[in-house]
Amino acid sequence: xxxxxLSLISIFFCFGLAVAQEGYASLRKAxxxxxxxxxxxxxxxxxxxxxxxxxxxxxxxxxxxxxxKDRPLPIGNGQTISQPYIVAFMTEVLELKNSDKVLEIGTGxxxxxxxxxxxxxxxxxxxIVEELALEAKKRxxxxxxxxxxxxxxxxxxxWPEKAPFDAIMVTAGADRIPQPLVDQLKLxxxxxxxxxxxxxxxxxxxxxxxxxxxxxxxxxxxxxVPFTRDN
Length: 231
Ligand code: SAH
Hints:
Blueprint: H1 2-36, H2 44-52, E1 73-76, E2 79-81, H3 84-92, E3 101-105, H4 111-119, E4 122-127, H5 130-142, E5 148-152, E6 165-170, H6 179-183, E7 185-195, E8 202-209, E9 214-222
Parallel strand pairs: 3-4, 3-6, 4-5, 6-7
Antiparallel strand pairs: 1-2, 7-8, 8-9
Helix pairs in contact: 1-2, 2-3, 2-4
S-adenosyl-L-homocysteine is lined by residues 75, 79-82, 105-106, 108-109, 111-112, 126-129, 132, 154-156, 171-172, 225, 227-229.
């Protein structure tokens, strides 16, 4: 009798989990259609990655029901995971290829790194808050994102040992573009970074490294948590 009751409980539990996962998959599909495609995101790799990566698994448990809403969410330590549209927009403008090696500064929850990792060959990501770096590393390992390497540290210096990179994404708002990141970009490489005064509106700047010049373009106004420095 006890065995039957326990079996029934576990069947209902698994069924509940499956229903929840199914629910999240359809919320994710609606997010991709309504928040991304309707706003002009067309890069197929980006759309597929956003459809695939379970965003709810990167946010605190009590916020999981809000994971697919059109908004940023807190992830602890005063940091936030960007609104899905911003994640997709920043990914799309990098024009990524399957063979690319990408550097991200500001690992946070690891969500953006996971999105990048679905598209490219390898992702290196640096997080200045050690606790967040360790958590993201553990989470990404459990989720089997084997092509992501996380390290704790000040991303201002980039990752010289792994450079040069096809693309670099900075997900914290800086007051200027760190020169080491430009230096670590391949020729033809792209860097996306929010730049502007702290506590203000910043511009999402796309930088392209050409043979004899650096081309910069402001793409849109954004709000981001600040890029901080190790002293
Ligand atoms: N990309 C993340 C969200 C980033 S929030 C995600 O998908 O969840 C911005 C992150 O940048 C924060 O976690 C913050 O601690 C980190 N950060 C700020 N300055 C940094 C620096 N100099 N080097 C590395 N990480 C930094």
